[in-house]
Design goal:
The structure holds 2 protein chains of 2 kinds. Chain A has 6 helices and 15 strands. Chain A has helices at about 35-50, 70-75, 95-105, 125-135, 185-195, 235-250, and strands spanning about 1-5, 10, 20, 25, 30-35, 55-65, 80-85, 110-115, 140-150, 150-160, 160-170, 170-175, 200, 215-220, 225-230. In chain A, the strands form 3 sheets. Chain A has a 9-stranded mixed beta sheet, with helices on both faces. In chain A, strands 2-5 form a two-stranded antiparallel ribbon. In chain A, strand 9 (about 140-150) and strand 10 (about 150-160) form a beta hairpin. In chain A, helix 2 (about 70-75) crosses helix 5 (about 185-195). The radius of gyration of chain A is 22 Å and the shape is globular. The termini of chain A are far apart. The termini of chain B are far apart. Chain B has a 9-stranded mixed beta sheet with strand order 9-8-7-10-6-1-4-5-11, sandwiched between helices. Chain B is of the alpha/beta class. In chain B, helix 5 runs parallel beside helix 8 (about 305-315). The chains are: A alpha/beta, B alpha/beta. Chains A and B meet through helix 3, helix 4, strand 9, strand 10 and strand 11 of A and helix 3, helix 4, strand 7, strand 8 and strand 9 of B. The complex binds flavin-adenine dinucleotide (FAD).
């Protein structure tokens, strides 16, 4: 099988987010591979190492020049080659899925792995939209996966719990916590990755228009009371907290 | 029409459905509000739905007994096309956000995901949504003959019944067969108030110390004050609590009137799930814990001492 892993680049989770004008300003922010996409990359490597017949693992990223760094990380982790479609334009997930589907078809991919939710745009749509464009089934929020020939089995979370599943390729799988622990690229592998193919594609060669316009962004600030109660006397602290919750916040009867 | 896909469980209409009806009324988009009820043996749900909608379309079929993204997407798309829907609203649940993008692709429609506010701007639909782990509120807009949106649970007031009950119609559906075989399901049920419905939530983090302490402190306090129980990922990963209780980026999003965090550090991924709570109360022995930055009331202290005192005092 040929695997396509999708890689996005997002601010490090602990980084401060700032807004300039009508958008989030990432200047000077440390950017990393989206953690959930990293689970997807790791899983592709583990399928191969676990004995599945994996001919090729390609990492795909769509985004500005900097996204190369995330692709280099994926290459250093062990993917075979990478494709970067360079653009500063922000494409919503449903539009982006057009590119994903075209790349998957051109590459003869039968499995797409990506993160369940994007840590920047908080979207969960890319996997499902790509699956629909290709006419493939999808399993989201997967935390267990194994391959036997063309059959994948695993577990994933659903609204009220979790399910075991079995599906034949081709398919789209979205990854989440628990699926694996991503490896750190080692120095020799980082060196090796420099020689691997990182192909640049033009956005113009894909037929895609944004479906959503982004008009503004605002930092969430909600003034909190920050009223601290001294905990040295547990009894008194408990009484005081309950009193505040009953009579000031009025959240307890 | 504005097509709202009803969410329901256990033979009852979900609160999220009533919230979507409000979103539909607020949106100013054209057409009667039409609720689509999909499932098996859903007559009671359809009757509940009729109280808030102009009309209810009922797809009551054995093939719909189990949710499946491909099947749901096909059903909703078919009805949206036949009814020439201007807007399709789907719940921002895990399943809703899973099949809604498929509907958008099938309809060649723009998709507004997990919105907290909706308004018509001429032909366009403008929306607000959270990004960057709910630290930023973004304004987005889409236009087209039909727009698909998912609505974040808890963002709109539940709709009250409007005048006469809407008519109910049985619909015929041409459904695909799913290519995914479900080999077993485990439902994580809590005997307590569902997190999405709870007005008060008591959440335990790793600072609680052990599964036994969790039962004693977190469940003990929750039971005294009629609260739901939540957990951090650290606690779920350690196997102390079921995943169903996890609050955060990869768990549930909640916004109760009061969120009481015991031994929780307040990592961004946790805050993204509970940061919109009306009142946040934190007990942590580390005065520098990030959770205090978002807290309305905080006690710097040891949960082993403070929580038993709280449980005792809240019993009175
Ligand atoms: C992709 C991704 C997704 C994630 N999704 C989620 C998610 O959905 N939900 C989530 O919660 N996390 C999530 N996380 C994990 C998150 O980053 C934190 O690791 C986690 O929230 C920490 O849990 P905690 O606060 O219970 O534990 P810790 O960080 O270990 O904090 C324990 C706290 O308890 C305090 N404490 C210790 N002993 C006592 C005592 N005796 N009395 C009082 N206080 C005490 C400590 O001071 C500390 O602040 C995610 C991480 C990643 C990378």
């Amino acid at each position: 099988m040929k695997i396509l892993t999708l890689v996005r680049q997002v601010p490090d989770a602990e980084a401060r987010v700032k807004v300039s004008g009508d958008r989030v300003d990432l200047d000077g922010t440390t950017l990393v591979i989206d953690g959930m996409d990293e689970y997807g990359v790791e899983e592709a490597l583990r399928l191969r190492e676990g004995g599945a017949n994996v001919e090729d693992i390609v990492a795909l990223a769509v985004g500005p020049k900097k996204v190369e760094d995330a692709l280099r990380t994926a290459l250093a982790m062990g993917v075979d080659r990478a494709i970067h479609i360079e653009t500063d334009e922000r494409l919503d997930a449903v539009s982006l899925s057009k590119i994903v589907a075209q790349v998957a078809q051109a590459e003869g991919t039968s499995l797409i792995l990506l993160g369940g939710q994007e840590a920047d745009w908080d979207s969960q749509a890319l996997g499902a939209a790509s699956a629909e464009r290709l006419g493939w089934p999808q399993l989201t929020w997967t935390n267990e996966l194994s391959a036997d020939g063309d059959t994948l089995t695993g577990r994933h979370d659903v609204d009220d719990g979790n399910e075991g599943f079995k599906v034949s390729l081709p398919a789209v799988i979205t990854a989440q916590q628990g699926l694996n622990e991503p490896r750190y690229p080692t120095l020799p592998n980082i060196m090796k990755a420099k020689k691997k193919e990182l192909r640049k594609d033009e956005l113009g060669s894909y037929d895609v228009q944004p479906g959503v316009q982004y008009l503004g962004a605002e930092i969430q600030t909600r003034a909190r009371l920050n009223r601290m109660i001294d905990g040295k006397d547990p009894q008194a602290a408990a009484e005081q907290l309950l009193d505040l919750l009953r009579n000031e916040a009025k959240v307890l009867a | 029409m504005i097509l709202v896909v009803a969410e329901h469980a256990g033979g009852k209409l979900g609160k999220s459905t009533l919230e979507m009806v409000t979103a539909a009324r607020d949106s100013g988009r054209e057409g009667p509000i039409t609720l689509l009820v999909l499932g098996q043996d859903v007559a009671a749900v359809a009757t509940e739905a009729a109280a808030v909608a102009d009309q209810v379309l009922v797809g009551d079929l054995p093939a719909l007994a189990q949710y499946n993204p491909e099947v749901w997407a096909a059903a909703v798309t078919q009805i949206a096309r036949e009814g020439e829907a201007s807007t399709v609203l789907i719940g921002g649940s895990r399943s809703g956000r899973e099949y809604a993008p498929r509907v958008a692709v099938k309809l060649d429609a723009p998709y507004l995901e997990d919105v907290i506010k909706l308004s018509a701007e001429g032909d366009a639909l403008q929306a607000q949504r959270y990004t960057f782990l709910a630290r930023v509120t973004e304004t987005v807009q889409a236009s087209g003959p039909v727009i698909v949106a998912t609505v974040k649970p808890g963002s709109f007031a539940p709709a009250a019944p409007a005048g006469a009950a809407g008519e109910q119609y049985d619909i015929e559906l041409d459904l695909p067969t799913s290519r995914t075989e479900i080999t077993g399901k485990s439902v994580e049920k809590s005997s307590r108030v569902a997190l999405s419905e709870a007005e008060i939530i008591v959440t335990g983090g790793r600072g609680v110390g052990s599964p036994e302490n969790f039962a004693q402190y977190v469940e003990g306090l929750a039971d005294n004050i009629g609260a739901g129980v939540g957990a951090t990922r650290a606690v779920v990963d350690a196997g102390w609590r079921p995943y169903a209780e996890q609050v955060g980026q990869t768990g549930k999003t909640v916004q109760p009137k009061a969120y009481i965090a015991l031994g929780v550090s307040g990592a961004v991924q946790h805050l993204s799930g509970m940061g919109k709570s009306k009142n946040i109360i934190a007990i942590n022995k580390d005065a520098e814990a990030p959770i205090f930055k978002v807290a309305d009331y905080g006690i710097v202290g040891d949960v082993n001492q403070i929580v038993p005192a709280l449980i005792a005092a809240s019993k009175k």
